[in-house]
Design a protein that fits this description.
Strand content: 15-25%
Low-confidence stretches: none
Largest sheet: 4 strands, mixed
Strand order of the largest sheet: 1-2-3-4
Number of helices: 12
Number of domains: 2
Structural class: alpha/beta
Mean pLDDT: 83
Order of helices and strands: EEHHEEHHHHHHEEHHEHEEH
Helix content: 55-70%
Radius of gyration: 27 Å
Length: 367
């Protein structure tokens, strides 16, 4: 995000603060010190109000950072890359590289954020029940705000409007039900646009009838949600990359056993069928792949006595699942500069995708 400044690195993820965060921090601190704490704790001194307000605001953004780290760490565990987390005026955003590979991944990455916020709220509630800080103390006031804020953040993010976490959960459910990621994105973003307009309307009403500052803040959040959902909706038009792998993969070609000699591999598997690579399968499970490039390092005079297992590339293999989108296959082809990708489900070879076939599809799509 432009205008962000790196302040730390956590678990290999760069943590940044956008300049708009300063406005949010100042507004929250001013609101707490000017009205929230004085109304609940009239006996505190002026300096105490401001100190408690600043600490509470910092704890809120610390909680949002925990929320985003939860998203990021689960994304990393699901094999995705996370470049950075940025705190800004409306909270935080995780810069997660690439699209989720399945509805299950989408659900897990999305739901963990609100869950982490609600767990923080529970921790604050238990601390209050235990009497931490004592009655009418600044610690109690900060804990009450911390608990309430995290509870509201968790509940708000569960609203089923994309790009809120709840909207991503909704998208994952529709995706899993229909198998159509583009359709799921369109529906979830449409709901997000609706929630955005509702917040704008509620903000206007609140500003007119009750609290101008709260109304303006609610309206800004609603407008941001509406704009974000609209941008996602416009970019969610179905393309070739939304097609699942299973719809275009070829049936698996004849695999080779790891004990077969290199000579037999070339004479019986490669030359007759003009194949540049052959999957290696043992007991119906994929254990590797061997290509023409792999043969370059093997003395030709030893091909007759060298088994395929000594020349093949073993796990982890570059592969996709049948339910992955073609965008994943395109990314892997480009990243590893390979000519084909195995389609594997539960270690069983179920298909194959060739670079030439995908490039042909792209050409036809553009015609």
């Amino acid at each position: 995000m432009n205008g962000a400044y790196k302040i730390a690195t956590v678990a290999g993820i760069d943590i940044g603060v956008h300049y708009t965060w300063l406005f949010a921090f100042a507004l929250i601190t001013w609101t707490l010190a000017g009205s929230w704490f004085p109304s609940d704790y009239p006996d505190w001194g002026e300096a105490t109000y401001w100190a408690a307000a600043a600490i509470a605001a910092l704890l809120l953004f610390g909680s949002i950072l925990v929320h985003e780290l939860a998203h990021s760490l689960v994304a990393i565990a699901r094999g995705m890359s996370v470049r950075s987390i940025t705190l800004f005026i409306f909270g935080g955003v995780s810069n997660i590289g690439g699209d989720t590979r399945s509805a299950r991944d989408e659900f897990q990455i999305a739901i963990v954020g609100p869950v982490s916020s609600l767990l923080l709220a529970l921790a604050g509630f238990l601390a209050l029940r235990a009497g931490v800080g004592g009655d009418d103390s600044p610690v109690e006031g900060i804990l009450i705000y911390f608990t309430l804020a995290n509870f509201l953040v968790g509940i708000f993010n569960l609203l089923p409007g994309f790009p809120l976490d709840g909207g991503r959960v909704l998208r994952s459910i529709i995706w899993a039900s229909t198998g159509d990621n583009a359709r799921a994105t369109g529906i979830a973003s449409g709901v997000g646009i609706g929630f955005g307009w509702l917040l704008v309307a509620a903000g206007v009403l609140t500003a007119i009838t009750d609290d101008v500052m709260s109304g303006l803040w609610m309206g800004f959040v609603g407008w941001y949600l509406k704009d974000s959902a609209t941008a996602v909706r416009r970019s969610s038009k179905r393309s070739i990359t939304d097609v699942p792998v299973r719809a275009v993969m070829s049936l698996p070609e004849r695999p080779v056993h790891p004990d077969v000699s290199i000579s037999a591999l070339v004479d019986e598997y490669m030359i007759p069928f003009e194949r540049r690579s052959v999957p290696v399968v043992e007991d119906d499970r994929v254990v590797g792949i061997i290509t023409l490039h792999d043969l370059d390092g093997i003395n030709r005079n030893l091909w007759g006595e060298t088994p395929v297992s000594e020349g093949m590339t073993g796990p982890p293999l570059v592969a996709v699942g049948p339910d992955d989108s073609l965008s994943i296959a395109f990314q892997l082809l480009a990243r590893y500069n390979i000519n084909q990708i195995l389609v594997i489900k539960s270690d069983v070879l179920v298909g194959i995708i060739k670079r030439s076939s995908l490039l042909g599809m792209v050409v036809r799509e553009r015609e």
